[in-house]
Write a structure and sequence with these properties.
Layout (H helix, E strand, L loop, with lengths): L1 E5 L1 H11 L10 E8 L2 E8 L2 E8 L5 H24 L13 H7 L4 H9 L3 H14 L9 E8 L1 E2 L11 E2 L6 H15 L5 E9 L7 H11 L5 E5 L8 H9 L4 E3 L7 H6 L6 H13 L3 E8 L6 H14 L3 E6 L8 H4 L5 H16 L3 E7 L10 E6 L5 H8 L3 E5 L4 E6 L4 E6 L4 H21 L2
Parallel strand pairs: 5-8, 5-15, 6-7, 8-9, 9-10, 10-11, 11-12
Antiparallel strand pairs: 1-2, 2-3, 3-4, 12-14, 13-14, 16-17
Helix pairs in contact: 6-7, 6-15, 11-13
The chain binds iron/sulfur cluster.
Length: 454
């Protein structure tokens, strides 16, 4: 039997996701997939060139078969594009956002399989290998394990590159209503948790809330006996009282995110603080003994390699427990998308290469990694940690090894179904007014979803 499928969807998805193939958006690509018994065949036509690939496979269940077809179709398309355009990608034909999760799914021979079947470069395989090593003490894929996420989607201003659901706090008329609804949702969620691994209060910038409101949220979460992170992302929102409040409620880890240590860039990206503010607030945070994460972004508008290098070196000098290096990802919805001039591809790769080299040689190890669509240079975001200080929440979420009970607008609750090797999701509305209006229904539906899944 021959089954033929036109894989135009794959072509669009792959080209968009890979984000690197310069000029590929304008190419005319035809892709036909067919099967004959255990033989997969992919025929690709780009311009006047035709490519043909075939692969013998061992069929499994329906889900596995779908994955096989997708994998080899993508590989065929990737090889064809590489040949036609004379370019290749460091992540090869791999387009998913979780390369490490993918590596785990391949079993013991993951490295060989990723190299041979997805054409991933040796340098990226080395990073994946280091991450798996660093994750070992924390990694636990087990039903009943759960992380709690609380969404505070407000910030003092909107950064120009932001594509999260973030509302300017000063303009929000329903802040009180949001906190009332959120507290209700958190309190109803707590009895559902069996084995809590971590709490993450993010969004947004939770510390941009007036302190009494922040306290109501922390009180609803209550005392926990596990890692407890609050995004304190912007130094303009942190005072001694803020940190004291976090400490009083048992928060163990904060994110204090410089993004860059260059004042000129901070202005350009719409931040209302200076690099010195970050240094001052970091000193203050150290007094309280928090574990600190610092985010940096490679590829920010107007930044050269030297600017980025300065930020990496500065962050290392400050020596927080975690440093996360993001590659600028300008999605639709970010104000910077239109105004930004693209940096040469090689420049961002050079920045990322430097961060890998410098951080690893300064005692930091990569411990999680993810990729996004529209990411400059088809690169990745990588979290680095001092030995033994990795963030449990980031590992659990990135590798999808636990349930995630999420509260608040735009929060997505995930249920891990181990036996079927899949995740089910329940998403709350993004819009604040809709969330408030529907909170009782959300609580009912979400709790049912969380309890009834196997
Ligand atoms: S702090 Fe984060 S969530 Fe808030 S506007 Fe900036 S990028 Fe967006």
């Amino acid at each position: 039997m021959i089954i033929e499928t036109n894989l135009q969807w794959m072509q669009a998805e792959f080209i968009e996701a890979s984000g690197f193939f310069n000029g590929a958006e304008d190419l005319s690509v035809e892709h036909f997939h067919s099967q004959e018994g255990d033989l997969l065949k992919d025929d690709v036509k780009i311009g006047d060139k035709a490519y043909s690939y075939s692969k013998k496979v061992v069929w499994g269940n329906e889900l596995e078969n779908k994955r096989l077809i997708k994998r080899y179709a993508k590989l065929a398309l990737y090889k064809s594009l590489c040949d036609y355009l004379g370019q290749n990608l460091v992540w090869g034909a791999l387009t998913g956002i979780r390369p490490v999760k993918y590596a785990y799914s391949l079993g013991e021979n993951w490295r060989q399989k990723m190299a041979e079947e997805m054409l991933v470069s040796e340098s990226k395989l080395d990073i994946v290998s280091r991450i798996m090593q660093e994750q070992k003490p924390v990694y636990e894929r087990k039903e009943g394990n759960c992380d709690l996420f609380v969404s505070i989607p407000f910030c003092p201003t909107r950064c120009l590159y932001c594509s999260f659901l973030s509302n300017e706090i000063g303009k929000e008329k329903q802040l009180d209503g949001y906190i009332d609804s959120l507290v209700k949702e958190i309190e109803s969620a707590k009895p559902l948790i069996k084995n809590l691994r971590s709490v993450y209060v993010g969004g947004g910038t939770p510390v941009s809330l007036p302190l009494p409101m922040l306290e109501r949220v922390l009180k609803a979460i209550g005392k926990v006996d596990c890692e407890y992170t609050v995004e304190a992302g912007r130094p303009d929102c942190i005072e001694r009282e803020t940190l004291q409040l976090l400490k009083d409620y048992g928060v163990t880890r904060i994110c204090l995110n410089p993004q860059t240590f260059n004042d000129k860039t901070l202005k350009v990206i719409g931040r209302r603080h200076t690099a010195q503010d970050i240094l001052d607030k970091y000193e203050l945070a150290k007094e309280f003994g928090f574990s600190v994460n610092m985010d940096l972004i490679a590829g920010l508008t107007g930044e050269s390699f030297e600017d980025f290098k300065y930020s990496v070196d500065k962050a290392i000098e400050l020596s927080p427990d975690n440093i996360t290096v993001h590659t600028l990802s300008l999605k639709r919805g970010s104000k910077l998308k239109e105004s930004t001039k693209k940096l040469p591809e090689g420049e961002i790769a050079k920045m990322i290469d430097y961060s890998v080299y410098k951080l690893i040689n300064s005692g930091f190890n990569p411990y999680y990694l993810y990729r996004q669509k529209y990411m400059a240079g088809n690169l990745e975001n990588t979290g680095y940690t001092k030995s033994g200080k990795s963030c449990v929440y980031n590992i659990d979420v990135m590798e999808e090894i636990t349930d995630n009970l999420a509260c608040g607008a735009n929060a997505v609750t995930k249920k891990l179904i181990l036996a079927e090797d899949r995740i089910e999701r329940y998403g709350a509305p993004k819009d604040i007014a809709t969330y408030i209006a529907k909170v009782d229904k959300i609580i009912e539906e979400k709790n049912k979803f969380f309890l009834e899944k196997p």
